[in-house]
C-alpha cells in the first residue's frame, strides 16, 4: 500500500526526501554519506573522515551505489572515479530521480572537463581530485548543514599496518581499534611523526610534559616500556628502540 503524505506546504522535492527517509527507517545520529569511488580514493576519504560524525558507505560500482542509495537515503553523495555500467552522468540522473533532495559532490581530475560540465549542469558541487581533506570537509559540512558541521582535524599517522590517531588516544592495527593511555599515546604519536629519526630523551620529555619535568625522566622510561609491550602484544610491525646515549628511534619492519 502506498502511503499518502500531507504536503504541509512542502515542495515536491521535500516530500520525496521525507518519504525516502521514512523508507530508510528514519535517521538519528551521524549523517549518512554515500561514497562512489575506486578503492584507493575510498581509503583516502575514509581517513579524512576519521572521527567525524559521519556514517560512510563506500561503493566501487555506480549501479551498486544506486541500490545503496535507495536503501540508506544518504544525506550527501561523493562521486569520484568508479567502475560500473553506468556513466557518472547517468548515475547522477538516476540518483536525482531516486532522491532529488540529496546533495552531491563530484571530484574531477585535470582531464575531466566534460564530467565537470555534466555534474555542474545537474546541480552537483564540483571540486578538484585528488580530494584535499580540509576542502572536502568544508564541502561536506556545507552540504550537510547545521548541526552536522564537520571540523578539520589532523589525519591519522599511517605506519605499516598501524594507524595512530592524531587527536584521540587510540590506534588501529588492521582497522582493529586499540585504546591507549594518554601519555603512551603522546609518546607514540611524537615518535611516529618522526619515523627512523633519533629523538633525545630531553626532547621527548619536553614535548610530552612541557615545563612540568619533575620526575618525568623516570616516567618516560616506564611509558616506553609499557608502550613496547602493548605494540608487541598487538602484533604491530613497528619497534621503539633505544639508541645508547642518544634517545629513542621508532622503526618500521621492512616487510610491512
Automatic annotation (TrEMBL):
GO annotations of cellular component type: cytosol; protein-DNA complex
Single GO biological process annotation from the record: regulation of DNA-templated transcription
Annotated keywords: DNA-binding
Top-level taxon: Bacteria
Gene3D superfamilies xrefs: 3.40.50.2300, Winged helix-like DNA-binding domain superfamily/Winged helix DNA-binding domain (1.10.10.10)
Pfam families: Trans_reg_C
InterPro entries in alphabetical order: CheY-like_superfamily, OmpR/PhoB-type_DNA-bd, Sig_transdc_resp-reg_C-effctor, WalR-like, WH-like_DNA-bd_sf
DNA-binding region ranges: 154-252
Single GO MF descriptor: transcription cis-regulatory region binding
Name of this protein: Heme response regulator HssR
Amino acid at each position: 500500500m502506498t502511503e499518502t503524505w500531507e504536503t504541509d506546504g512542502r515542495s515536491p522535492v521535500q516530500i520525496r526526501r521525507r518519504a525516502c527517509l521514512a523508507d530508510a527507517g528514519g535517521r538519528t545520529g551521524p549523517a549518512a554519506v554515500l561514497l562512489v569511488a575506486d578503492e584507493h580514493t575510498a581509503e583516502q576519504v575514509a581517513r579524512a573522515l576519521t572521527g567525524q560524525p559521519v556514517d560512510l558507505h563506500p561503493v566501487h560500482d555506480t549501479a551498486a551505489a544506486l541500490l545503496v542509495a535507495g536503501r540508506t537515503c544518504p544525506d550527501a553523495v561523493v562521486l569520484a572515479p568508479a567502475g560500473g555500467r553506468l556513466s557518472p552522468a547517468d548515475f547522477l540522473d538516476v540518483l536525482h530521480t531516486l532522491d532529488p533532495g540529496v546533495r552531491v559532490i563530484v571530484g574531477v581530475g585535470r582531464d575531466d572537463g566534460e564530467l565537470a560540465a555534466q555534474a555542474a549542469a545537474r546541480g552537483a558541487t564540483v571540486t578538484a581530485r585528488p580530494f584535499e581533506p580540509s576542502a572536502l570537509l568544508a564541502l561536506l559540512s556545507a552540504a550537510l548543514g547545521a548541526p552536522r558541521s564537520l571540523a578539520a582535524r589532523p589525519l591519522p599517522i599511517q605506519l605499516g599496518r598501524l594507524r595512530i590517531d592524531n587527536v584521540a588516544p587510540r590506534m588501529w592495527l588492521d582497522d582493529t581499534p586499540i585504546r591507549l593511555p594518554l601519555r603512551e599515546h603522546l609518546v607514540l604519536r611524537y615518535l611516529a611523526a618522526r619515523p627512523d629519526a633519533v629523538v633525545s630523551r630531553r626532547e621527548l620529555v619536553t614535548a610530552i610534559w612541557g615545563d612540568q619535568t619533575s620526575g618525568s625522566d623516570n616516567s618516560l622510561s616506564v611509558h616506553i616500556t609499557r608502550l613496547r609491550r602493548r605494540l608487541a602484544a598487538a602484533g604491530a610491525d613497528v619497534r621503539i628502540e633505544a639508541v645508547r646515549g642518544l634517545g629513542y628511534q621508532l622503526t618500521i619492519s621492512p616487510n610491512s
